[in-house]
Amino acid sequence: MAPAEKKKTGEVIGIDLGTTFSCVVVSRNGKAEIIVNDQGNRTTPSSVAFTNSNRLVDEAAKNQAALNPRRTIFDAKRLIVNCGGKPYVEISTASGEEEVNKTFSPEEISAMILRKMKETEESYLRKPVAGAVITVSAYFKDMQRQATKDARTIAGLDVLRIINEPTVAAIAYGLNNNRNKRKKGKSKILVYDLGGGTFDVNVLEVDGSQLFRVLTTGGDTHLGGGDFDQRVLDYFMKLIKRKNSVEDGLDCRTLGRLRKECERAKRVLSCQSQVKVEIDSLFQGKDFSESLTRAKFDELNLDLFKKTMKVVRATLEFAKLKKGQIEEIVLVGGSTRVSRLREMLMEMLDRKEPNRGVNPDEAVAYGVVVLAFNLRCLAPRYGITLHDVAPLSLGINVVGDVMSVLIPRNTSIPTKMSQIYHTSQDNQTTITFRIFQGERVMTKDCLELGRISLRDLPPAPRGVVKMNVTFKIDANGILSVLVEDNAMNNSKSFVAKGYKGNLTEEEVERMVREAKQMAEEDKRAKERVEARNRFERYIYDVKGALNNRNIGTNKWSRDKEKVEDAVREASEWLDGNGNVSKEEYEKSMQKLADVWNPIIRKVNA
Predict the structure, then answer these.
(1) Which of 94, 136, 363, 555 could anchor a disulfide with 169, C-beta 3.0 to 4.6 Å?
(2) Would residue 16 show up in a list of annotated catalytic residues for this protein?
């Protein structure tokens, strides 16, 4: 008998890669702990920006977005879900003293955010991360999941599992429910997950805190809180144009400032009935001041709210469940704080109150780290068994371009299914299988994932030559396909990546190389910023010491003037040199120190 395989051990993290915000969590002393970033916040904006001197990720990128809108990227996760082509963003970056245009794929942008999450965790743990579990929207298609895998490769992360956000939120709910000992046995819960850019609905069967079985899933990868912000933005833009008799659109900087306030107003309306939106010198030198009521906000977004309810209804119907069979409602995502949405959901589900034992912003993060440690068996006491499902049907085209489904939607994964197909023409020596994902009858209405061609088939009447087609979905939801002509020992395989919108292996390798290069650039940029900050603090310290110590007497008057001149010179140099090397900042700081240190030593003697 072969020896049992050893389970891997080491620090494992969970990453909730959100459209608008992301967070990272680790299990410490038996508890899931969300790690604060270098700004002291538990969530990090999923934003990347480029300035003349460096690249910014997280809070720094979001904070300067209004002033630098053309070189700030947000909602990159949404770009990943654009499967109509191969979306790239073009940004003007600095190369020496010149500006150059550079294109980035959504995978690269997401990799920058993932790398920031990894750095946040490693700074906290003070050692490398062994592995991670990353969340995605439950309604992500196969190539969208592959794009996320490409992003983690570029970021240099060892990912144990890519898992659906509502599923891991249900894990957090199940553990919390078990701790409170509210209910034993099986229960059916509905997870309503509305974040900044994506919307998911999952119906799960939970048995205590051990067994989590996804029954059905639905959603929309282009619906979220960002759309609510846009409706408010459009409303205020119309007001501005009407009051100022303007026909043309507003410039990017004005839109950026207004968008930021629209997002703030949305958050305030979650707990207040009215909010004042005020911005100094917003347009044509005029101040902007308008009130927004919760009723108006609800009116602007009512059709979007109804759209989410339609998905809930369809998901319940697909699961063949009545609304009364749902025992718990779990809300996930910051956008679920919208009061009208909660009311509509309660009205639909027999006035059932949502479960408030799980923080909507952090439920996914808590669940994902529990799953991460369960996979590495570092916390066997959790004993979790997870059964997820395929979000959409998978199949091939047959005669008439009809979709022949091998793996139906909501099939439990991982899974493997096979079916026999035969030639459709006499003496056919080549057959091409086109692989699709979707719920429509005709393949033209579904998403094509790729093609496999089997050649050198023996000439024969149609229907004689038969091929076995096998579809396999792994635990991450990634599809692989195998086509075999067993009689001729002829086979071809395919992994659903690199077709219509995803990255080829060569592109991923190139991006990994560039990511390493950018990591060095980021390190130098960080050192440069830290050196500048040290110099600036030193100038303020010297100024403060001059005011606090008795250096103004006649005995020290000349020395004080000398220091004041040196401080003035240092301040002017700093104001005029915002993008010099770390060494130049240190050299200028030392120049000031050479003046200040001998004098302060004499004063203290």
Answers:
(1) 363
(2) yes
